[in-house]
């Protein structure tokens, strides 16, 4: 299980402005146990890989670690064999953000750890080579320049013909067919089949969609191979689950990914509040303490704004706009404003008509709708998918199977001919609902990680930064719930030992043996509890 960590981090983690090793996907690991309660295996579930990072990163951030490991760790001969002769800083996917290194991290050495992890999960040398070739193809695809002539039709630029040939060779497909598929689209009507030539913007989108699809499917395939090595479903009868999922996010520009991430955090925060609430109830009931009940603000209203189907929540409204052939991000933003104008947690900025704000439990976040439809549909055109299915590479054929599964029964699909896949938003809602069912069926414990400062320096505590993390993690709300009833607690033995001197020497002498025993008493000791009750009865005049 530990051996898979370098592999998942290499392909799923990246440097962001706040974290040098930020997970850009959600992960739930089941540590499986057999009937004798011995560990028998493990299974990894993943949620919402941030595939848009493959083609674009914010200034000062990096792409996924594996691309830098590849460029720094391959020998000169290996780079030439993979056609990666372009300097790292000149590669669009890794050089445009202005950040190619992480202080203190040797990407070349990290590649060796990643390859060792591949070997640990039983990837053969040939499979490892195919994985690295697929990554090189993603890097080269992004280098391809698509020109537009006077007829406004896109074509591969003269300077990029060699790049197309190299990328096609790496994934085992025909270069001419790849050029054609990037610049055209085949439309099937009731009576005919029409090939439509794309303009440059559309062809750029096709190229980027292929790069994202290849990387995303590769990541999913690696997780499946990890599970094939780790999981033992036949002997597993119980498990301990570890959830490591993205925290609440708020950036200068927030897009579809942040909406999904913050939606997940809203759902988990609701669960956290309820767990704290139920823990308080159980503790008072166990000790026979009378209490009037704890009231706290539930965030169900905000969740309904995002995912309630009957109220046409934002994700359902987005699915509806994706199903319309002439739908646009502008129309989605306008419909969201009209539909939810009166909602208490929704706000529409007057200046920017393409934005809306949601009042989350951790604060208000403004989302820019540009790109929402494309990210939600996350579609690779069927011509490119069919081309990948002709590959001579066994790995690529595994990534693009001809019998790809359709959406689960009852799940919303992106409508339209040839489409049989769930939208990203619908798939994420389904995954999150399944995760919450699993969490509700278990005993839950929470671990909150807090960074003391933003510059990764020791002995520096930034109060504002820490307070913001505590708010985003829901810790402040949990403290507020605990304080609403009986926030001050002491073990019975500690209480009576501390306050026995108030009872006078006679009482202490008469209970000397019990006081001595209380010094060694474990938490919850019944004798210590009775001694504490006796001490209170002797000192406190309580008519109740």
- Oligomeric description of these chains: single chain
Characterize the biggest β-sheet: 3 strands, antiparallel
Given the C-alpha coordinates, what overall shape results?
Answer: elongated
Kindly estimate the percentage of residues that lie in beta strands according to DSSP: 5-15%
Mean pLDDT: 90
Q: Which sequence of strands runs across the widest sheet?
A: 4-3-9
**Uncertain spans, ≥5 residues at pLDDT below 50?**
405-420
Q: Helix count?
A: 23
Q: Give the tally of β-strands.
A: 12
Radius of gyration, rounded? 29 Å
Percent in helix: 40-55%
Cα(first) to Cα(last) distance is: 57 Å
Structure, explained:
With 544 residues, the protein is mostly helical. It contains 23 helices and 12 strands. The protein has helices at 4-12, 65-73, 76-81, 92-95, 107-120, 125-141, 161-171, 175-183, 200-230, 256-286, 300-307, 314-323, 329-339, 372-377, 382-388, 394-399, 424-440, 463-472, 475-483, 492-499, 504-510, 512-518, 526-539, and strands at 13-14, 22-23, 26-33, 39-47, 146-148, 154-156, 184-188, 193-197, 238-244, 346-347, 355-360, 363-368. The strands form 5 sheets. The chain has a 3-stranded antiparallel β-sheet. A hairpin with a 5-residue loop joins β3 (26-33) and β4. α1 (4-12) packs across α5 (107-120) and α10 (256-286) runs parallel beside α19 (475-483). The radius of gyration is 29 Å and the shape is elongated. 35% of the residues are buried.
